[in-house]
Amino acid sequence: MEPLKNMFNTAFLEQVGAAAEMVLEDFDKTVFLKAVFAGNWEQLELKQRIRRISTVLHDMFSGDYTQDIHSLLALTEELHRRAGRDNTFEYMFLPDYIEQYGTLHPRESLKAMERITILVSCEYAIRPFLIQDLKGTLAVMKKWTGHEHASVRRLATEGCRPRLPWGMALPALKKDPAPIIPILESLKLDESEFVRRSVANNLNDIAKDNPDVVLELATRWQGISEDTDRLIKHASRTLLKRADARALGLFGISQNISHTILHLSLVSERIKVGEYLEFSFLLENRDEVTADFRVEYAIHYCKAGGKTGRKVFKITENRYAPGKPVSFSRRQSFADMTTRKHYAGLHTLEIVINGKPQASVTFEVYR
Fold first, then answer.
1. Is the pLDDT assigned to residue 226 strictly greater than 80?
2. Can you give the pTM of this predicted structure?
3. By the 8 A CB rule, do 133 and 94 touch?
4. If pLDDT is split at 50, 70 and 90, which confidence band does 181 have?
5. Is 90 exceeded by the pLDDT of residue 339?
6. Contact, 218 vs 235, CB < 8 A?
7. Residue 32 has what pLDDT?
8. What is the CATH number of domain 4-250?
9. Intervals of CATH 1.25.40.290 along the chain
10. Dihedrals φ, ψ of 30, to 5°?
């Protein structure tokens, strides 16, 4: 798969430069391209390339942020017109410009984000503003919950996620998420699944540090609508993987159902990094009645220095009648990824039913 950073190629940046030349007086596309591609461009990773582009734009603007933000917005309008769609990714250098240079001008910056986020999400750019002025920034985001455009409403919740992946940490909201709750309350019934999904992700973040807050909200919201029920189920995914008894009970999953795991087997007990672990097993409900089952598997990964790390993967949630074994088979990739590097050594596969480990088998990973 081609690295994502390669989207910032000559053809793409030619288009950016041409758009800037069209709407900005004295902008020179040739100078822009030369500065972007200067030096070690080929060695730069994705975020570094985004930062390079936003820095070059800043160097070519006037140096007066209150004027330059209008130049950025004019460029945004032209790029949006050319893209012909919302919610792109390749224009991440636009919010990055605000993240770098706009914190001394929060009013102008937040107003600009309200427009830019329709083209490209400002969820990362807004985080230094939350650190700088949590109360004031959240007040603006609360107003955004009533915005006509779904992307702006989504920014209201996505931008204040306490644990936004790859985003700047928000320690105050990890400790106390109470200031976020009015935003989530306002958006729980949003007409857009795009927005509701963000509410669920925010709640899932909160659950990692403040599970009681999420359980209280989930209990209160349950049954409001089918959409809200789906929202709280997605919001509770970390609690469910942790086998939190309260979360399991909220969704009708009992840890006291009699059952058994039969014939857990591996296709191979030795797999090479880059290959798949393939396994199968039977689940039999041995209770007297049909019951709900949450079927998962966990892998205890061998880590550097002899440590291990456990990760849970969901297979299904379903109702099964007693006395009728159900067959499952799965394959798990052991290819190295940006988010996970695999180490040689003994690993353990564990079958997890309704939050409880039931059967396990070891296998070897080698390079």
1. yes
2. 0.90
3. no
4. very high
5. no
6. yes
7. 98
8. 1.25.40.290
9. 4-250
10. -65, -45
Return contacts of 56-64, CB within 8 angstroms, 24+ apart.
56/32, 57/20, 57/32, 57/93, 57/97, 58/97, 58/100, 58/101, 59/35, 60/27, 60/28, 60/31, 60/32, 60/35
Residue located via tokens 């799965």: 330
d(CA 249, CA 61): 57
Question: Are 108 and 65 a contacting pair, CB within 8 Å?
Answer: yes
Q: For residue range 134-170, what is the model confidence (pLDDT) as tens digits?
A: 999 999 999 999 999 999 999 999 999 999 999 999 9
- Phi, psi angles (nearest 5°) of residue 188: -65, -25
Within 8 A by CB and 6+ apart from 169, the residues are 163
How would you classify residue 203: left for phi > 0, otherwise alpha for psi between -120 and 50, otherwise beta? alpha
Q: Kindly state the average pLDDT of the residues 330-347.
A: 92
How would residue 306 be classed by pLDDT, with cut points 50, 70 and 90?
confident
Q: Which residue has the tokens 């605000």?
A: 98
User: What CATH class does 259-366 carry?
Assistant: mainly beta
pLDDT, residue 340, reads: 84
Q: Which two tokens stand for residue 264?
A: 């857990």
* Each residue's pLDDT tens digit, 112-140: 999 999 999 999 999 999 999 999 999 99
Q: Please tell me whether residue 223 adopts helix, strand or coil conformation.
A: coil
Token pair listed for 300? 């205890």
pLDDT at res. 184: 98
- Sheet of 356-366: strand order equals 270-272, 356-366, 345-353, 291-302, 308-320
Residue from 215, 157, 159 nearest 187 by CA:
157
Residue spans in the chain of domains classed CATH 2.60.40.10: 259-366
Section 52-57 average pLDDT: 98
State both tokens at 121.
Answer: 């999400």
Helix (H, G, I), strand (E, B) or coil at 217: helix
Residues 6+ apart with CB under 8 A from 61: 67, 68, 71, 72
Assigned token pair, 77:
């309008």
Q: Which of 91, 62, 70, 68 is nearest to 79 (CA)?
A: 91
Please name the residues in contact with 83: beta carbons below 8 A apart, sequence gap of 6 or more.
91, 119
Helix pair 193-209, 226-235: axis angle to 10 deg: 40
